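Subject: design request, 283 residues
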């Protein structure tokens, strides 16, 4: 029987610390501010953006949400980004992805001031993460690291297998595990004999976007299994990338979906916004 890593509880603890720091900043006349831009009407993105705004309000941050129509042009979006880059009340700028097809993610992200890039998606911040000297945490991978740390799970010397190589999760996750002295293997959709690798994992982080993809026979006894997946079943229920029913009996620790990694991602976004507010005020 695995210990369940309670992401909701750990996220609440960290958000409490952030709220406390925010109150201390406010006493000095500084209010951390996050601007979130959403283009179009993707329902999943709308939920994420609502949750980000709510999380900001709960810790005492200033937040602005810009809901732009699907037909927004690149010039219009860039004009808004540039205006926010120059706005001293805004410390973090987040452009919700995916953008509509006629807009190029890369061009937009490249135009966010790297010092306000609280997603850590700008090439400057990605480079800093690669080097290991970064101010802004890649939100989901940093959330995973915080779950491991708060659960007392050591990474050093462990074989860490990451399933997925996206720019948002897989690649930065591998870097953070490496910086923590893990031995890291990255697997992806073209990996042959995938189970040969997953069965060797002391720590398995799964971010493939396929419901119940990792099954009990793919996991070794006492592995730590972290499920980054967020898939919606036909009946509307959320499920991860890990088949909880068959993996949980073999694992030593496992994250549930929902209530595992999910609550940590926004928590790390809040942490980055706080960091930015402090840096912009030379604190
Ligand atoms: N879309 C899905 N996840 C994310 C995220 O972490 N940041 C942004 N900006 N868009 C996303």
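Subject: RE: design request

Done. Sequence follows.
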């Amino acid at each position: 029987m695995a210990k369940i890593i309670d992401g909701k509880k750990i996220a609440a603890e960290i958000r409490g610390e952030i709220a406390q720091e925010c109150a201390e900043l406010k006493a000095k006349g500084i209010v951390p501010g996050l601007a979130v831009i959403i283009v179009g009407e993707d329902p999943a993105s709308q939920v994420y953006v609502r949750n980000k705004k709510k999380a900001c309000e709960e810790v005492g941050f200033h937040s602005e949400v810009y809901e732009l129509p699907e037909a927004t042009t690149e010039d219009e979006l860039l004009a808004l980004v540039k205006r926010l880059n120059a706005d001293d009340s805004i410390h973090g700028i987040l452009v919700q992805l995916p953008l509509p097809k006629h807009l190029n993610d890369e061009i937009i992200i490249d135009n966010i001031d790297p010092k306000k890039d609280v997603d850590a998606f700008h090439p400057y911040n990605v480079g800093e993460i690669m080097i290991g000297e970064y101010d802004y945490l890649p939100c989901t991978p940093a959330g995973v690291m915080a779950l491991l740390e708060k659960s007392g799970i050591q990474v050093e010397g462990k074989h860490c297998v990451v399933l997925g190589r996206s720019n948002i999760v897989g690649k930065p996750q591998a870097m953070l595990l490496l910086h923590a002295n893990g031995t890291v293997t990255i697997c992806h959709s073209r990996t042959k004999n995938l189970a040969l690798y997953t069965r060797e994992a002391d720590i398995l982080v799964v971010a493939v976007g396929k419901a119940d993809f990792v099954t009990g026979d793919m996991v070794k006894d006492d592995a730590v299994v972290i499920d980054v997946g967020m898939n919606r079943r036909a009946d509307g229920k959320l499920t991860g990338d890990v088949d909880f029913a068959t993996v949980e009996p073999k694992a030593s620790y496992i994250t549930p979906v929902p209530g595992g990694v999910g609550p940590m991602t926004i928590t790390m976004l809040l942490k980055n916004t706080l960091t930015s507010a402090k840096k912009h005020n030379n604190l």
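The chain has ten helices and eleven strands.
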